[in-house]
Fold this protein.
Amino acid sequence: MFAVVCIPNFALQALLRHEPELRDRPVALIDAAGANLAKALILECTRAAEVSSVFPGLTAPQAQARCRELVLKPRSPSAEQSATEILLQTAYAFSPNIENTAPGVCTIDLRGLGFSSSRGDETYAEVAEQSLLTSAATRDGVVQGSFGFLQEAVTRSPSPLHGERAGVRGGYTQCLIRDPRRETDHPSPSIPTHEPERRSPDRHEVAARWKHADREIGAPLRFRGTIRGFFRTIKSLPVEERGKSALVIDWANAIVAAFRQLGVEAKLGIASTPNLALLAARAAQPVLVIERAETFFDSLPIAALEPTPHVLDILKRWGIHTAGAFLALGKDAIAERLGDEALKLFQRAGTDTIRPLNIVVPPDVFEEQRDFETPVETLEPLLFVLRRFVEQLAARITLGYRVVSEFQLKLTLESGVPYEHTFKVPAPTSNVETLFRMLHTHLESLRTEASITSLKLIATPTRAHGQQFGLFESALRDLNHFHETLARLTALLGSERVGTPVAEATHRPDAFRMKTPTFGDSQTRNTKPETRNAPGFCLRRFRPAIHADVELKEGRPVYISTLVASGAVKRARGPWCISGTWWDQRRWSRQEWDVEMNSGDVYRLFKSNGDWLLEGVYD
Amino acid sequence: MAATIVQLRQLLREKFPGLRTRADELPVKQRDGWATGITKLDARLGGGFPKSAISEVIAPRRGSGSALLLLQLLRHAAAQKQFMALVDGLDSFDAASVEQMSLDHLLWIRCHNADEAVKAADLVLRDGNLPVVLLDLALNPEAQLRKIPAPTWYRFQRIVEESAATFIVFTPRAMVSPAEVRVTLRSRFGLSAVEADQLKLTMELEFEVMETGGVLENEPLRRSA
């Protein structure tokens, strides 16, 4: 089996992916921008535009004359490229064998995915049976099952079943099963008893009604009928048939839902050959599984096979309006009259030829880009777009069971100067709030010399890795939040003023460097203690050291005068002469004194290059 | 009428434990303490500096051992494998006097003045990741300290109440109104202490502990030492 994902109006959807508010408005895609607007042709348009009689092929002025509110958008190759990546990456999350068939079309090989296996089907049936039995005592209960599973069961039900809308729980359709024989004795509060009794619809009638019902995931449906009849239906189905279609439909709905989460409306067709699946995808609303090709072709318009206008005209004059009627003419007879063109049409509708797929592996690139029509000067619109980028990228990466480890933000300024910044996520995550906050914090303190014309965000995915913390060790509760706080502190004070001090390998006093705290790393926690010779009394340093005027007597300080302390020295200890790096330009030497003032305060003085400086106070 | 009020108070007390139902009644607060590792101080504090509350350490003069106490707190936190933030009000912390193992557990925020320090402390407290936060204003000039608005401390109190952090403010005078505990350093070390054993000096630190209950300023409700 093959599945084809088709994104209708691909170029337009690619463009509107980040502007969902425009989807319900009349929007048209044009093939030119700016000066060529008068001659620009409408390529694609939204449904709202079609309602206003705007169709592809019109010129932009014609379209605007028909619809005053029409929004014209030029094609964006970068947006289409991103949408193609999304299409392939999403499809790849469901099957390893995918083909980039055409722009907005991806073919998926379903062979080997286990849809013909009966194990999963058994589970469905067992769940339904168990739920049914639980509620059988009251003759009134709820059974959970997938839409496809229940539809399959009802279609094949020997007894009539009624369908109505109801609730949904946990992604499964809830079905209310009631015994009509006892309905008069125990009316259910959830079903109005004053409902007029109608003729029990034929099972095919019910199935047909549901066929046109909303098939979205979790589409609410309620079933009313005989419990035992419903139960017998499930039990009577062969295991192979019990859930095969159901599983496939569930799988297809999951793909469509994944695309919807990424802001793309996709259609999906499943059939025995790639070509048939493509036709099914184009006709799907939004999922169509072809089990009997003949039935499908009987209702498929001949135009769906995309014949040339000439051939289409001939066929219409012959009275051939459906693909089924066309195929019924016979390959040889048609080829004899219409030539190669007819053979191509036969190939497109081929049910027995499986063409080899050109398998591709989607690029491991996760990036979103937007060129602004008018340069952005303030933070709010930038954050608005950035938020959507983060949501999209997180969703795409999550599809592959991965998390974001790094973001690269690229801004293009109106002056032409690019701006780039890389954000390393301390604890890789796919949480949108955390990721967005990180970008937000940085941009709050960013000042650019010109307005922004283009925004690009590139995400680097990684495998989520677990960490085992020690039983007696404390760990940071939210590492990402902690690093965000560090970023805020850095913005407030500067990078050299926030961090963990690391002593330099030198004897030079107060020699250290600051590093980013690694509180989340195991290395920090396993550091072995080391001893360090330090005086008993602790020093509070003045940074920078304060100039001091020192009066000496017999080479010892007896009076000092500084901005923070002045007075006679009661006692002094020293000098301690230290020096280092005498072999190069960074050489230093100093003469240290510890002095106790008459006030009782104890200071450290030092003389370097002939100047006296107050280094700190002991406290 | 009086009986009704009494009943109402009783009902409120049962429904909201710790609620003050009378103006002259202290709120009932049962807080955990964060031990400092200094036996004498822990004993007087009843187990250590309170968590989820502000504590104030007053160093009325230089040489009273506030830097020594700060160092001891840092070492003790590192020994317990806890991370600590030091918001250094005047960038005076001497990193060279501490072993690297302890420094590895320290987030040092080097501020130029008290205003920056208050802003930085606000960010760190709101972060809520670090169990111990020290705000060192002991060396800041009086002019800077006077500029700190009094509501700032109440804001800090509200933030700390929501977390399990121990927040200790080092000041040269009593200025943190909602401090739950106020410790005044009464030691006076001279030049001879420069070469003395640090552990011995730490044990010689003298404290005066006041449990203010975080209610009133300059009016100690109970004096324990």
